Amino acid sequence: MYRVLLHNDDYTPMEFVVRLLQTVFHHGESMAQQIMLHVHNSGVGVAGVFTHEIAETKVAQTHMLARQNESPLMASMEPEDDPDAES
């Protein structure tokens, strides 16, 4: 399993990140708000945990939607069992 991480930047509106977490990652509004605030305050946060193929797709969808909205938002993925990983 792989974690999909969102990385904070100084340009992407918080509302866009919440919408993205709701549409791409299927979180409810409250959970999306919590994840967005964690990313904002910590610099990085877990959007979800998926199989390798689904994680790759979620990263690609995030980048596509971000670029369509002229946002520099970045996503990455890492193995879930990585002991040095950020959460």
UniProtKB/TrEMBL annotation:
The keyword Hydrolase applies. Residues 1-75 form the Adaptor protein ClpS core domain. GO terms for molecular function: peptidase activity. One of its GO terms (biological process) is protein catabolic process. It holds the Pfam family ClpS. Residues 67-87 are annotated as: Disordered. Keywords: Hydrolase, Protease. InterPro entries: ClpS (IPR022935), ClpS_core (IPR003769), Ribosomal_bL12_C/ClpS-like (IPR014719). It comes from the Bacteria. Residues 78-87 have a biased composition (Acidic residues). Binds to the N-terminal domain of the chaperone ClpA. PANTHER family: ATP-DEPENDENT CLP PROTEASE ADAPTER PROTEIN CLPS, ATP-DEPENDENT CLP PROTEASE ADAPTER PROTEIN CLPS1, CHLOROPLASTIC. Involved in the modulation of the specificity of the ClpAP-mediated ATP-dependent protein degradation. Belongs to the ClpS family. This is ATP-dependent Clp protease adapter protein ClpS.
